[in-house]
What we know:
mainly alpha
Amino acid sequence: MQALLAFEQGPPVAVPARFFLTAPLYLVLAGVLLAFEGQAVFASRWTPAALALTHLLTLGFMLQIMLGALIQILPVVAGAHLPQPRLLAAVVHPALNLGVLSLALGFLQGASTWMYAAAVFLVIALGVFIAASGWALWRVPSTSPSIRGLKIALLALLITVVSGVYMLLALAGGWPLVLDRVANLHAGWGLGGWTAILLAAVAYVVVPMFQLTPGYPARLAWWFPRLVFLALLLWSVGALVGVEWLVTVARVLLVLTTGGFVIATLLLQKKRRRARVDVTFRYWQFALYAVLAALTMALAEGVWPALGEFKAWPLLLGLLVVLGGDVAFITGMLYKIVPFLLWFDLQNRSAIGQPPPAMNRLLAEVEAEYQLYLFYLAGGGLLAAWIWPAAMVIPAGVLIVLTGAGLFLNLVRACWRYRGFRLQAVVNGERA
């Protein structure tokens, strides 16, 4: 099942580009933090360094790209026209970055002032974004699985934001809080609801389009976001009222539903019509297998809850989901979406008889491959740091810095080349 796309309805390319170019810098910051505070990161998921690192990745990198992509995708895929996309980005982008940096400082320093500042900035950024996109999206009928998925993902984002801000204010103000229970729900809605459902809604479009596969089965595409949302809802009810068997059932349902989507994607990729394996495909393969490993761990923990009591267990699970899965998924998408958006803009600006340059002239495959190899090394370094933190945290941190810097340089180079081709098109148009 593949949606009809209206690329001409998208915002100016500079609107999502500011989010895409900023995000890799948070990989660099995450690597620096890991190199300096690595043993504290691997000591427990609750240490200040671990909390700061987690949110640099999930908010600074992942959420940044997802918001920029949604500003582009909503009018193109769903026909949901955001009011004043330039103004929206001008508000959301700085507020989000100020919020993420304040949050990391608040965790690292244990300072309530930074936490309150983070809450204010994040509420502004995400409140404005959810209000604008919700207003645009809910006026559009759910005529495709992608549109339905986008709506449910946005609702999951709202729940994630509310629970996160509540925890942040509780930590800053010293309110009584059952931290682990609320934090698990917050992570579940953020990673299982917002991220997984949004990535699936986008995958319905980009996997057949860029990887030349058949479309997703209609029944799977329609039911996946509903079942994920239902599982998270049951999990939340069970956790809040203390019904443990309901929590177990909900988590098993979530694992099986997500696993079904991952396996369906792997099967579709085997039927692709493109023989050549590119960087995006390899990123997606890496991510899909990492998520399968994480889902296996989560299923085992659901059957034997004692596994979750091992200190190293949630750390490995988080590494597989966030870095092995989500960061890899999103990076792979960037290597297709950014060159395509730049190419499409050049196509619209090109004079008659002067076609735009090929996308690989904007971002060469070999440049992306170098960064992919750095990502592989960073993944291996993190696994080694999980096993031998004292010896491997600094090398792992350095490799993450290089991975983020490589991605940033590749995207900047693509934008710089786009600028050169755009200026050339202007000159050629004037001569014509």
